[in-house]
Amino acid sequence: MSTLDAAWKHTFGSKFHSAIMATSRVVLLTGASRGVGLAIAHFLLSRSHKLVVVARTEQPLRELEKQYKDQVAVLAGDLSDLSLGAAAVNLAQERWQRLDGLIINHGVLDPVKRLADCSTEEWRAAYDINFFSAVAMTKAALQPLRESHGRIIFTSSGAASNAYPTWGAYGSAKAAMNHLAMTIANEEKDIIAIAVRPGTVDTEMQRDIREKHSTAMDASDAKKFAELKSSGSLLKPEQPGHVMARLVLDAPKELSGKFVQWNGEELKAFQE
């Protein structure tokens, strides 16, 4: 029995625990085509939950649809299109007549430039994807999540509180996302909202840092990220992904509004 299962059983009793685990939830997941998002998708789908999956790349989403029959609804599109949020929520309600959770897991690192070298338009484009799309999707999901007493999990970053040179647009958008989680916690008493720092994960974004952005970054930062890969220190997507998947199902009210580390003490019950 996992630590989380043991905690549930101790707190609620075996009958209620079994009922929780047997209940199929409907979750909207962005960035579901790869990395942490794909790990979250497999975790939830393998436990008979239902997903609306959103990403720019359609083929991996169709593979999930094929693998998990009748559990997946696909919406492919660029999340800088702010109408995609309402479309995704409507898809969940049309398909399953409810929405129990929302995981905002998409984002881009660009522009990786010092502020002096960036245009305002580049920052605005980054915010459209990294922040305003999250606002749009969250706003669209509020009513069904109020009805289900649901949860919102935001994939944040250590860059939200640690300002790397050349990462200003990305880091500040993640800081804004953390504040969005606090705002929801204060305004929406029937919804739990949490921002999660997933750690440094072996994803395509990390590959871009090493191969595409290293010359733009400070040499010490580029070296740091290269050594994390060469030393085998990067996390597997499943490590934070499985914690986040459990959180969208059963995060407690006392975590609402917080910015938490995926392997922090406050999430011990959700770790494997």
Q: Briefly note the CATH topology name of the largest domain.
A: Rossmann fold
Q: Could you state the CATH homologous superfamily of the largest domain?
A: NAD(P)-binding Rossmann-like Domain
The total number of structural domains is 2
**Beta-strand residue percentage:** 5-15%
Q: How would you describe what is shown here?
A:
- With 272 residues, the chain is an alpha/beta fold.
- It folds into two domains: 3-199 and 237-270, NAD(P)-binding Rossmann-like Domain (Rossmann fold, 3-Layer(aba) Sandwich); 202-234, no CATH class.
- 50% of the residues lie in helices and 12% in strands.
- The protein is built from ten helices and seven strands.
- It has helices spanning 3-12, 14-22, 35-45, 58-67, 84-96, 120-148, 168-187, 204-211, 219-230, 238-250; strands spanning 26-30, 50-55, 72-76, 101-104, 151-155, 192-197, 259-261.
- A seven-stranded parallel sheet has the order 3-2-1-4-5-6-7, with helices on both faces.
- α3 crosses α10, α5 (84-96) packs parallel to α6 and α6 packs parallel to α7.
- The radius of gyration is 18 Å and the shape is globular.
